[in-house]
Input
Amino acid sequence: VCLSFDLLLNAVIAGILLGGFYAAVTVGVSISFGILDIVNIAHPAFIIIGSYIAYIVNVTLGIDPILISIIMMPAFYLLGAAVYQVYYESFEKYGQESLIGLSFFFGLLFVTEVGLILVFGVDYRYVEAWYIGPSWHFGAIDLPLRMLVPCLAALALFAALQLFLSYTFIGRAISAVAQDQLALRLMAASPTRIKRIAFGISIATTAVAGALLIIIQPVEPSIGREYIGRVFAICVLGGLGSLPGTLIGAMLLGIVESFTSTCYGPSWAPAVAFGVLLLTLAFRPAGLLGR
Amino acid sequence: VQTRIFFLIAAAVAALVFVAARFVSNDYVFFAGYTVLQFVVLATAWNILGGYTGYVNFGSAAFFAMGAYASVFFHKTYQLPIPLLIIIGGAVSGLVGLGMGYLTLRLRGAFFAIATLALAVVLQTFIVNWDYVGGSRGAYIIRPAEVLFVGPYIQYLFLLMLGLVVAALTCARWIERSQLGYGFATIRDDELAAEACGVPTLQLKLIATTISGGLMGMAGAPFPYYIGYLQPASAFGLEYAVNSIAMPMIGGTTSWVGPLIGAILLGSLQQIATVTISSAVNLLIVGLLLVAFVIIAPRGIVGLVQERLRRSVR
Output
């Protein structure tokens, strides 16, 4: 089934577009898990919240979903900072983040999902925008704008975060937290404050990721679960804490998933991420660009 | 108390429960009771890995469903009796646990947790694509109406699950007091120090994942017969994952009593809430209780009671 050149070419392009979107979904985890060592498995739940906010505002006011998500970022930042504060006060301070910290995030994930089901039901929701529907054609290549626009938005978000982390004072401080918290304390800086900011940023990215998700596909509350495997697979594949690695990992996973869908049918796609995750953990646990 | 005596006491209590349940003329008590007992096994199994060694398993649903689908497979192929299916289901899930553990446990603890989460999604994908066991349509299991010497089939299932509860609790309590349990506790408290003292941590962790996964599979094996129609979405339901974490967390994770208390309390509460309110609300309650307990009382009900006792002694 997979022999036609056109089909292969389109699968690669679809994979790259999908990968760009995955990069936006993963970048937050790359910060929280990769840099801060906080295993936030509730990350997809925040993404779904972002999707639903984009949906509500889009349906009632007709504003572009990406614009909505950018406006919502400060609110998500505050939400993230608040969640970190609870996490720190309850678990991290006592060094108990492993067992009950994980359960805390798992509980958050679950409560969000069930809460959304109670409020919105299990129907699929979608948004409307001018770029959902049309596609550009270049010879044999199809470029659906529904995928292209989220991919470009994701890359912009990614570039902004990379610049922020490398060139601003706070960004460098965040990297410093990842390297040596004790040294930071000795210099009279508070790692907790910096981690709070970084976690806030990590959750702020979910506002955008959520809007992009609901542009790409209709969303229902339990869809977030499918992204847990993907997000952590990309994070581990790229190498923990490395943003360029995350981008490469996201593109690779996007392409492999797109091939799987084209050749074996879309019902197999969710298994790909897990295969990638297990293979990476077994053969190169440090990831492609890991420290 | 020695393990053998504990086993006898547990078996006697189980027998009493069964006799008492038969005095109730309504069969619903067996249906509801079966679910609660199933959660006791799941919570105890989860706690052997999660509570004793400190490694979190989010994929309980996957291990449970493996047991259930192993039953469906063998039901279609050979028509084996359920006690045998329970052993097969346990073996299948135990092997999956061993394999998962081998791939992920050599790394940091978080990887294991993440991998178990993803495992559920993947196994579900496989089952959905596997037509022999029903695929996404699901599989029907025709069960006989009566069983010799026991009576109605649901009573037989209830009795089997009671037996599993006794086995799981005895196993958990035995581990707690054996050298194995002390090994597990060293991993939970400080894995690096344990490793440095010569504790074979990887080996112990693999034993824990295998036992824990195996018990979950055993709990899942009779499930197709209980529900009659097994669908991937119901076998892999997130409620199994969340309940098997929430119950030990709420009861207390350091001893076998915790999961038992948590499962009986939360399981009964859910049975009541499902009937009186709605099943979505009852899941929300479980989630909120889990979050509340890990923040306010991280040592669970058992921890709260112990603290109270210690204070009253002084």
Remarks:
- Chain A touches chain B through 43 residues (CB under 8 Å).
